[in-house]
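Late entry, written up from scratch paper. The run itself happened at the end of the previous shift, but nothing got recorded in the book at the time, so transcribing now.
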Amino acid sequence: MSGARIRLAAGRLLNLVLDKRRTLDDALATDDAYNTLDGSDRAFARAIASSSLRHLGWIDRGVAPFLSRPMSATGAEIRALIRAGAAQIWFMDVPHHAAVSESVEAARLWSPARSGGGFLNAALRRVSESESPAAAMSPLALWPDWLAGRLGSAYGREAAEALALAQLEEPSLNLSPKGDGARVAEATGGTLLPDGAIDIVSGAVETLPGYSAGDWWVQDAAARIPARLLAPQAGERILDLCAAPGGKTLQLAAAGAEVTALDRSRPRLERLKENLARTGLHAEVIVADGEAWTPPAPFPKILLDAPCSALGTLRRHPEGAWIKTEEDVTRFPAVQARLLEAATGMLTPGGTLVYCVCTPVPAEGVEIVEAAIARGTLARAPVSAAEIPGFEAALTPAGDVLTLPRAGRSQDAFYIARLTRQA
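Output as recorded:
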């Protein structure tokens, strides 16, 4: 029965994510069927859900010929179990008979799915008799058509395919050290990267050496670049605008800067406060709307990590491609432009502002920056290759940074620009 309960939990997670538009992290935290599992059973349910989301475009297209009605016309619960079953058969090392039979048994345990057991059984048996669709499909088929079209147009087919394939990798864990990176790497068994991050193959965060002592925090290597480009100095006043969950605040504080961390989300700032307490670092934390807040005095340096579509984090959050719509993405540029204008007003003449977004969509990145420069208040302060060790290939001709996946290195896709306010 545990096999069926594992598939039930995986199906419920997919239902919460794809039909209720919840993040996978939120679904994992709240679903009772998942949280009643223990140890390896829980890990397996999570792995099924994660694999289903990473391969979802291929799964839905590959399964379609085997269904007597379109996937969209299938009940949500059966749809979730079909996707979970196909992921096991095509993309996981799971015996086909177990994937089919335990998924059908899971449907019996899930009252809204009981009537669809026969349909589920027939579909998964046909899937189990077929080859994986991976070899026959473009990597861009992993995504909804609108996303494939948008990023294919922006970067060309080859680069867009590399972005899509990057989401199939289980990402390693990156740590930012508070002090001596070599010591943290040795203690955790990680690899010290050229940019100072530590790469960890796997492990539960809370059990790694140095966690409780506050020697490090979790932060993707690409996410470390924006704070580094501000070159924070001891005693410098720096505003981290849209600061939560706080990795960049911790970087700036660890360099000795006097940091003001501002965000409109009180719950997300609580997480920042917890990490400040754990690491023994200090920052002034303010709950406020960055578009409306007025500082007591202008700042010489500002970091603006603007709200965005987060489509550069699909390695860690593959559901993002499916729970966001094209309409969702098109609303971000207006918000980003307003925040950049507000941040410019908080900056001293001659001051430095780093703008970044964890998405490769040009409308949220370079187009926002170019429009701001065109208004005459800001000028680009080009980044040099020497400032971004390990990411030299991410430097754009204009002197910005775009961390698309490249051979030998995969990380979140960040767009970063450094700007100065004209006197």
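The longest strand covers residues 347-357.
(Scratch paper discarded after transcription.)
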